[in-house]
Amino acid sequence: MNEQPVIQTRGLTKYFGAKPAVYDLNLEVPRGCVLAFLGRNGSGKTTTIRMLLGLLEPTRGEGSILGHDIRALPPEARERIGYLTEEHQLYGWMSVKECGGFQSQFYPRWNEKIFRGVIGHFSLKPAARVKDLSRGERAGLCLGLMLAPEPELLILDDPAMGLDPVARRSLVESMIYLTRRSDRTIFFSSHQLADVERVADYIAVLDHGVLRACCPVEAFRGSVKEVHLRFSGVPPALPKIPGLLQAFRTERELRVTCVHYSRAIEQALQALAPLQMEMAPISLEDAFISYLGERGEKSFILSETEVQP
Amino acid sequence: MKALIRKELRENLKLAVLGFVVFTVLVVWSWRDYAVMMKDVLLGLRSLEGYHLQPVGSGLIFVGTAWLCVIFGAVLGWMQIFNERHRDLWAFLVHRPISPTQIFFGKVIAGLGIYIVAAGLPLVCFIAWAGIPRHVAAPFEWGMVLPIAWLFLAGIAFYFAGMLTVLRQARWYASRTFGLGLAFMVLLANVAPNWRFWQILVAMLIGIAILAAAVWGGFHSDGYYKGQPALGKLGLTASITVGAGVVAFIVFVLLANLIPNLFNSDRWAMYVMTKDGTIYKKIQGGRRPPEFVDLDGKPLIDAKTGRMIESEEFNRRACNTTSIPMDWEKPSLRRRNPPTFFTFWQATPDTIWYYWNRYGRLVGYDIATRRFIGSVGPNGFADDLSGGGDRFNAPERDRYPPVPLRTLRTATAIYRADLQNRAINTLFTTEKDETILGATDVFLNGADWDYTVVVTKRHIRLLTPEGKVVWKTPYNQAYPDYGHVRVSFLEKPGQCALWVAPPYGANKKAGWKLPTHVAWIDSEQGMFKSVDLPNLNPPGNGYSLRAKLLSLLMPPGLWAGIYLDDRPEPLELPWKLVLISLAAAAVVWVPLGLWLAWHHNFDIRAQLGWAVFHLFCGIPGFVAFLSVQEWPAQEPCPNCEKLRSIDREKCEHCGADFAPPEKNGTEIFAPLEASRT
Question: What's the ipTM?
Answer without folding.
Answer: 0.87
